Amino acid sequence: MKHRIVVLGAGYAGAFAAGNLARRLSPADTEITVVNAVPDFVERMRLHQLAVGQDVTFRRLADVFAGTGVRLRLARVTGIDPGRRTVAVTGEEGDDELTYDTLLYTLGSSADHHGVPGVAEHAFDVTGRSSALRLRERLAGLGEGGTVLVVGEGLTGIETATEIAESRPDLSVALAARGEPGAWLSPKARRHLRQAFDRLGITVHEHTAIEAVEPTRAIAADGMSIAADVTVWSAGFAVHPLAAAAGLEVAGTGQIVVDRTMRSVSHPDVYAAGDCAYAIGDNGRPLPMSCASAGLTNMQATAAIIARLTGTEVPVTGLKYHGNHISLGRRDAIFQMVDGGIRSKSWYLGGRTAARLKSGVLKGAGWGIVHPTFGMPKRRRRLAAAPYPAGVKAAA
């Protein structure tokens, strides 16, 4: 009987992992099923571009996995039973239950509202395609002089604020930060960031915690009212409570606690990668929720799964950050090198060169995912593309 691998989620971590597993494991011995709620691979790192009206093309997962042997099930995960090794899903094909021998959990994250009143009802975010399109529609309806407030001084907040300001110079854009935007950057990079804010006309409210969001304004902890026809919430990420509800050991964040090989510490047939994995990096600290972490953890998870299924020694891949890359619109960016403790080094790259580098990184990440058969022998590709035997369900 084939070893059944079920991958939950087809974002950066899940899509790459599924393609890598298909490329390196024999289809005669393994069966790989990917469960995803939407039919396309969504490049989350481009969603702020989508939100401002730029043309962002998403590849269909059916095309991505064509010829790999990976079975795609378009459905939403509603529950996991680790004891029975089953996953409950619901979709256009109705309710179903998938059985696994190995589960790779890569369901990602969504915006963390932190319990702030009015965020769920009135704020927008760019953590998913549907929410980015909702913001896109709202921004398109704003006339000259409209006000936009971005809440959050992290990478997502900075990239979203600068993208909106560059694309819509007719709008008044502000950024609310609990501390100083880019406080982790080197002094020269922070100066570059402040100059970008000034150049784009972005008003920065430092040390301003937003405690309520209303339809046309946000209220800060000190009582200050900030006008906002649109409030964009980018103050952190949260994971779905599905793993905790299933009885998997999770951290206080709800992320699955994993060992150095991305294997659940409570359920050895479950692996996690990406934002939903509570993994300790090479510096002894938990990896942050980011695309870089998705790359690091999915490579370690797939390497471990392959090694254990093929009876070879489990390799240890690096879990080390080398830098932060922040886009500041389409023609400017910052690349900040960091040391082993994720402390900024004095050197940084900025301007158009950094913007071209960021564009290259995005294209490279997208290319690697949409070409999962790269390196697979032609004979394997033909076998993988062959029809399944009659009676075999695509989500079996």
Task: Describe this structure in a few short sentences.
The chain has 396 residues and is of the alpha/beta class. It has helices spanning 12-24, 47-51, 61-64, 119-122, 129-140, 155-167, 187-200, 242-245, 291-310, 352-370, 378-385; strands spanning 3-8, 30-36, 40-41, 59-60, 71-81, 86-91, 94-99, 102-105, 110-111, 147-151, 172-176, 203-205, 210-214, 217-220, 225-227, 230-233, 237-238, 256-257, 270-272, 277-278, 323-327, 333-338, 344-350.
Can you walk through the features of this model?
The chain is α/β, with parallel strands linked by helices and 396 residues long. It has helices at 12-24, 47-51, 61-64, 119-122, 129-140, 155-167, 187-200, 242-245, 291-310, 352-370, 378-385, and strands at residues 3-8, 30-36, 40-41, 59-60, 71-81, 86-91, 94-99, 102-105, 110-111, 147-151, 172-176, 203-205, 210-214, 217-220, 225-227, 230-233, 237-238, 256-257, 270-272, 277-278, 323-327, 333-338, 344-350. It folds into 2 domains: 3-109 and 239-320 and 374-385, FAD/NAD(P)-binding domain (3-Layer(bba) Sandwich), CATH 3.50.50; 111-233, 3-Layer(bba) Sandwich (FAD/NAD(P)-binding domain). The strands form 7 sheets. Strands 7-6-5-2-1-8-19 form a 7-stranded mixed β-sheet. The longest helix has 20 residues, at 291-310.
